[in-house]
Design a protein that fits this description.
It is a single chain. This protein is an alpha/beta fold. It folds into two domains: 101 residues, NAD(P)-binding Rossmann-like Domain (Rossmann fold); 58 residues. Helix content is 48%, strand content 15%. Helix 6 packs parallel to helix 9 and helix 8 runs antiparallel to helix 9. The N and C termini lie far apart (47 Å).
Length: 208
Amino acid sequence: MIPLFVDCSGKRIIIFGGGEVASRKAAYFSRETDVLVISRSFSHKMSILPVKRRMLDVGRVPDEVLNGILDGAFLVVGALSDPAQNNRIKDLCMAREILFNNADGEPGTVIIPSVIGGENYQLAISTRGNSPAVSRFIREHLESQFPALDDMIALQRSLRAQLKQTESSQSRRNAILWEVLHDREIWKTLKTDPAGAYQLAKERYLHE
């Protein structure tokens, strides 16, 4: 598999399942996509998410009904409690070349990663389904060790733009930005005073 960031704005995402796992998947997509959830029941969390819901016992309907539901889908998630039904939906999606993520069953064509991000960045972490706990551990470690990462990226963007005006050597520009990244005092200042950290970086590395 190849990691990609894909614009899913306005795309139709179908999630089979109404429990806690399905709710996490729905919450993941509901900010940018048109989510339809298919299940015979819905958890409280699912019931308050901004998604469309349709009550249906998947195990009691033929493939023709499911194929009708799949029409127009960009990506489908199998998060039912029965792996056999998830696998059944996977086979229907594979036959129609619809992207599929399987929460419990045979691997699909898509892995939904653990994500950490801010205004200026996103990091996706995956163990290819082998250990969701490790993905969560890495995400939480990054959040705790680099709480000012978003502000550092903003600082780097500003410094980079200014260096392009004052430093002709690209290798020298890269060296300066790298030094800033390893400056512990700047990282510490970023936590409470981003503007002060930027001024400190200019004084130290741009000599202003």
